[in-house]
């Protein structure tokens, strides 16, 4: 079974619309998909609606990727299989959206001082009704201001500690995890291998996360090496965490594809072990 529990659409910083993403997942024969936009759950309803009109066998799991702040790390917490309409979740995400808007205005002010005028208008136009992210700023910097790629826009201006970096006012890990759990879902530490943490910090992170009610660890992340993924599997087993897997697909590229290279290493407990992953027939008749 092809299972991908981490990807993005134009509801945040993905470049494909919900419908385009679903078409792609279908073509690539993905069986189970969670769309996990940054601080946004609207993709699930749109995707479910589109699915029904298409009568395709693709099981959709509600998802989100929540930004949190922890000891000057920006830790992403993925939520899976919860009620996207739950009032606690809805109120929480409304606040996240507000934090994003306020941070974006400050980023634009800083960019103005760096000689990049009036970027907010262009960024807003690109964002449409999605959540505003630094990726959008990076794309405009590439498109209109001579940056060679998004990475260099992050390296020179948008990344942590750079000239246009704004310290975000994200909530704590505990708040994010409790929100996901209140809405009936499982909380997962997203791409743990990405944070460049020592083992000591990773253990602190996992302990705090578990104390808040978190139970998942994104053991397989398509952008990390198999060696790092194996190391993450060791952490998952040591701390009795359920293993998740995701491509973190943001749009077509040479390096990343939906559902690709996501097999879990031997010996971990898949996060979907107690989900009813309905058969093709059932999901078609829903
Ligand atoms: P935000 O949540 O608004 O802070 O934006 C973070 C998003 O920017 C991440 O989810 C990535 O998709 C993207 N991002 C972060 N760092 C880089 C980078 N170095 N190059 C390209 N994209 C990046
Ligand atoms: Mn992103
Ligand atoms: Mn992330
Ligand atoms: Mn992501």
List keywords for this structure.
286 residues; alpha/beta; binds manganese (II) ion; binds adenosine monophosphate; 10 helices; three-stranded parallel β-sheet; five-stranded mixed β-sheet
Question: Number of helix segments?
Answer: 10
- Succession of helices and strands: EHEHEEEHHHHHEHEHEH
The largest pleated sheet is described as: 5 strands, mixed
Number of strands: 8
Strand order of the largest sheet: 4-5-6-7-8
How far apart, in Å, are the first and last alpha carbons?
20 Å
Radius of gyration: 18 Å
> Which shape, going by the Cα principal axes?
globular
Topology diagram in text:
Elements: E1 3-4, H1 18-27, E2 32-34, H2 42-54, E3 59-61, E4 63-70, E5 73-80, H3 87-113, H4 119-127, H5 134-144, H6 150-158, H7 173-182, E6 186-189, H8 199-212, E7 216-221, H9 226-238, E8 242-246, H10 280-285
Parallel strand pairs: 1-2, 2-3, 6-7, 7-8
Antiparallel strand pairs: 4-5, 5-6
Helix pairs in contact: 5-6, 7-8
Bound molecules: adenosine monophosphate (AMP) and manganese (II) ion (3 copies).
Could you characterize the architecture of this molecule?
It is a single chain. With 286 residues, this protein is an alpha/beta fold. Helix content is 43%, strand content 14%. The protein is built from 10 helices and 8 strands. It has helices at residues 18-27, 42-54, 87-113, 119-127, 134-144, 150-158, 173-182, 199-212, 226-238, 280-285; strands spanning 3-4, 32-34, 59-61, 63-70, 73-80, 186-189, 216-221, 242-246. Strands 4-5-6-7-8 form a 5-stranded mixed β-sheet. Strands 1-2-3 form a 3-stranded parallel β-sheet, covered by helices on one side. Strand 1 (3-4), helix 1 and strand 2 (32-34) form a beta-alpha-beta unit. Helix 5 packs across helix 6 and helix 7 (173-182) packs parallel to helix 8 (199-212). The longest helix has 27 residues, at 87-113. It starts with a strand and ends with a helix.
